[in-house]
Amino acid sequence: MVRKEKEHKLNLVIIGGGPAAITIAKTIQDKMKVTIIRPEDHSMIYCAMPYAIENLLTFEKTFKSDNIVFDAKAELIRDTVSNVDFDTKTISMEKNKDINYDKLIIATGAVPILPPIEGNRRSNVMTFKTEDDLKKIIDLVDNGLQKAVVVGAGAIGIELAQALNERKVETHLVDMAESILPNMMDIDMIEETQETLIRAGVHLHLKSKVEAIQVKGKTEEIILDNNKVIPLSSFDDNCTELDKETTTGLVVFAVGMRPTVGIFEGTKLEIEKDGIVINNKMETNIPDVYAVGDCCQFTSALTGEVISGKLATNAVPMGRVLAFNLLGQNREYPGFYNGAATKINDVFLGGTGFTEATARKNFEVEVGYAEFTTAFPIMPSAKKVKLKLIADKNTHKIIGGQFISGEPVADKVDQITMALQFGITVEQLTSFSYSSQPYQSFYPAHNLIVKAAEEILKKFQVPSQN
Ligand SMILES: Cc1cc2nc3c(=O)[nH]c(=O)nc-3n(C[C@H](O)[C@H](O)[C@H](O)COP(=O)(O)OP(=O)(O)OC[C@H]3O[C@@H](n4cnc5c(N)ncnc54)[C@H](O)[C@@H]3O)c2cc1C
Asked: How far apart are CA 366 and CA 389, in angstroms?
C-alpha cells in the first residue's frame, strides 16, 4: 500500500481582520494554512456606519459576517497580538498560547486621531471607528441627544454630521480648511454643495481649529482658535462639580488616522511617521514579514512622495498584490491615487488624484470644466453632472478629476483614475470613446470627459502673438 505523504502547507498568519486581511485570505484560500488574528467580535463595514446612525440600516447590518473568513478556509483567532518575536517567528497573544508562522502579514490598520487638547478625555468626547463607537452614538441619539460637534469635514465627518442632523440633533461641523472635503474637492467645485449642507441645518465652522473643550460656569463649551465658542451643554443650578465632568452633548473627532503599530515600536521592523515601511511588493525590512493596508506608509502613484491614503480602496488592492505574489505571481503595487466619493443631501460627489490646490505644490497645472446632464436634457430623469479635470502643463498628463452630480459618480471617478493609472494625456482623452442613450448620458454630440479635456487643450494651444 502506498502511503500518501501529508502535504505541508505554508503557515501564513495575518494580524488584523479588516478588508486587507480578508482580501488576502479570500485570494489564498486553502493553498496555504491561513490564520487571521483579530480582537473584535465583529469585523465592521466601516463605510456603512454613518447610515446606521441615520437609521437607514440596522446596527447589525454594519457587521461583516465571519463566514467570509470561514468560506476562505481560514482559521479565525479572536485575540489581540501582544508581541512578535521576528527571530523565532513567534506570535504572543493576550489570551491564547503562542503560535509560530512561516510567513507573517501585518494588517493592523489605523486608529482615529484624538488631538491632545484640553478636555479630550471628557465623557462623550470620542472618535469614530469601532462597533462600540457606533453603539455609543446610536444610544445617545436614541436617548434624545440634543447637540453634537463633529470635528473634521472630510468624508467621514461629513457623513457623520449629516446622519446626526437627519436625526434632529443640532449638529456643528468644524474644520481648519476653507471648505469641506478639502482633500477631495477644490473650493470652486464644492462651494454650492457646501451651501446645501448649511441649508439642511448643519452649522458649519470653517477656518476654525478646536482648541479646548471646557466647562465655564454652567456651560460646557468648545473653544475655537478664532475666538468663536460653541456652547455644548449646560448644567442646572443643583449640579455638582462631579456632574460637570459628564458631557450631555457629543464631540466626535474625525480628523485623520494614525497607523496601529504600537506593538512593533522598538523592534527591528522599520516604521516611519505614517506607518510600516514597505516596498511595492508589500515586503517589510524583515524576511517573511509583510504589511498591507492602513498600517503602512506608502507613496503617491503620481509623484512617488509619501502621501496619506488610508482608504479601504487602497488596503484591498495592496492585499491583492501580496496574496497573488505569495501564490507565485510577480505583481507590484503602484501607489495611491486616492479615488473616493461621498454624498451630501441629494448630491453625489467624488474625486481622484490631486485637487488643483494640492497639485499646484508639485506641478504647473491647467484645468478644464464641463457640465452636462446625466440623461438627455429632454428626459424627465436628467440631473446635472459637472467635471473638473486637472492636467500637468508639462507632460499634458491628467493628474486629477472631480465630479458633482445628481446621480452616483463613483464609476466616473474610476474612469479618471484609470486615466491617471495609464498616464493618459489631455490629447488622448479628447478622443475618449463613449456611448450614449437618452436615459443614461448626454446627447451623443457631447461627453463630459472629452469636453473638459478639450477645454484644457484649448488653453495649451494659445496661439503665439507674433
Ligand atoms: C467611519 C469610516 C468610514 C469609512 N469609509 C470609507 C469609504 O467610504 N471608502 C473607503 O475606501 N474607506 C473608508 N474608510 C476607511 C477604511 O475603512 C480603511 O481604510 C480600511 O478599513 C483599512 O483596512 P485595513 O484592513 O488596513 O485595516 P482595518 O480595517 O483598520 O483593520 C485592522 C484590523 O487589525 C486589528 N488589529 C490591530 N492591532 C491588532 C493586534 N495587536 N492584534 C490583533 N489584531 C489587531 C484591528 O482590530 C482590525 O481588525 C472608512 C473608515 C471609517 C472609520
From this structure: 8
